[in-house]
Amino acid sequence: MSQKSERRGIHVDQSELLCKKGCGYYGNPAWQGFCSKCWREEYQRARQKQIQEDWALAERLQREEEAAYASSQGAQTQPTLAPFSKFEDKKTNVTTRKVTTVKKFFSPSSRAAPKKETQEAKAPSPSISRQSSVETDKVSRDFIDFLKNLQKPGRDIHKQCRIFLETMANKKEVSAEEQSEYVQDFYQNVAEKLQVHFKGSSERVERVMDQVEKYIMTRLYKSVFCPETTDDEKKDLAVQKRIRALHWVTLQMLCVPVNEDIPEVSDILVKAITDIIEMDSKRVPRDKLACITKCSKHIFNAIKITKKEPASADDFLPTLIYIVLKANPPRLQSNIQYITRFCNPSRLMTGEDGYYFTNLCCAVAFIEKLDAQSLNLSPEDFERYMSGQASPRRQDQDGYPSHVNNSPSLGQAYQNLERLSGLGERQERVLEGARRLERDLIEWSDGVAREVQDILDKYPLEICHPASAIDSDNVENDRLPPPLQPQVFAG
Q: What is the pTM of this model?
């Protein structure tokens, strides 16, 4: 198969990564191709439309009920108005609660309400009074220490965060979309207040918002990550099953421009796989995004080393797909949805974090829809590979008989024989090197012996014996007493 045809199967135009509304920010498949800002506008518009339709339906049903009741009861239709007025009041209250967002908690007219709730909730609920984990305690202490530098605005932010957390603790039954809306509204309100305080310094605002997100989402993680009200867990299992079934996909099928035979490239790919797996262990959306960014940078580095030139976007996406297939990250869909719902929207709309996250969403979407045409395979081969009846032929298997290519066990046996043959060649090279080293050592030893002998022959060793007593040269001998003579005593 040609490289061009392979590329066509997985190529994604960079314009497709942007919001389909044309605002210039990055879109997201989870937001139906919109960016965070445009998606919220569409969501609010659709929600208002649904509320209006529900209201119109309720009115129509009430009119039909009144007409039916009037036809059967005649003049007794008037008493039914009282029950309907109660229904109308209840419907209005429900609608108002749904439309009203977390903004009301920070308005002057509602600041007295949290005090009343606090007094009524002196016996805290189990979710609030439960013992915090070590990580949560550390994040809380770090957040308080950070806010001390902001003085009065820091105290206000901490108070707002506490009120918001207490409010969210009472909203366990709401849907994940509504939880996301509450959190995003809270981000927006805090950011607007910080813009006023810092007089438009976006860098300082982002720094504070990062800390707010870390504090809020660490506390809310257990209640909002993969909630029971969603099908996130079902999607996780489906994606994991799908990736396991695609374990046979090779580098050549995806046209991945990396060479795993290069040790440095192989090590970098292992780091990329580790980073994408580590994403599940993080609690804060920003930290999960950081794992995706590190993984993506490792991918670009591996491509650069292999090609010896900077990587392009067309090289990056197929390599990211390959990494996801090899890693099979745990709870992948839940992590993507968690980031989508609760991350600071500015991070997903712009910057490298948003770009890499959008590419990850595209990679997952590609894996879910991957078919024979995407890999330039025949439908028959694709189905055989997916069912495990056969495995794709590697490039080094081109010389195999046809019956070997159709049998995974025979193919594996041939591969093992090739590996054994390669190991035999390597062993021969090692033995030849050992024999060469032995010959070199023998020659070196003989050379040293010859040099020593030549030196001995040139400078023979002469041993001189003394001609007189040891003290013959001592001029002071005359002054010495005579030596002792041995004497024999009779027993």
A: 0.61
